[in-house]
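Worked example

This section walks through a single chain of length 167. The input is the sequence exactly as stored; nothing has been trimmed or padded.
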Amino acid sequence: MLLVAIVALFLGGGIALKGPDRWPTYRNGPEPRISELGSEPCGPVEDGCATYRLSWVVTGEMTTVFRLDGLFGSWLRWDGTLDGVLHADFHGTCPGATVRWGIRADTRAVASGTLSTVPGGRATAHEPTIPGATDTVTLTAAWGQRPPGCDSFTLNWDDPEINTGLF
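Given that input, the structure is written out below as tokens.
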């Protein structure tokens, strides 16, 4: 009985303060290069949490699958929104170039869009809700329009996480 009360207090306190964020961990497909961008406030107790950029150099198309890990592994899950910003850097002479991207939670499409050479050609993941039972997140990107002389693009995903906290 005491054990049940301690577990309930721990879980209830965690929900009231901040649920466990879940991070995409590389599983298969083209592996991203990971670089640290800096830090940001991340809770009432923590001073700062590192922010990261995942990057891929793409010449045609790419599909990378991530598993979702969290503070308590994969056995304790809450639904949450997908945070993160996608943007592309084009290599070569690329006027009018576009990249199509998409994000799936397991097999369900949750976000998609287009990145272009137009200034401000960044895309957010539109904060789709990722169901708590989701095991994988898949990111895809491919040329929409590729002008001659445009060799490749770098797809960047800044600080992707499933934000399950209440604050």
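What to look for: The chain is about 10% helix and 55% strand.
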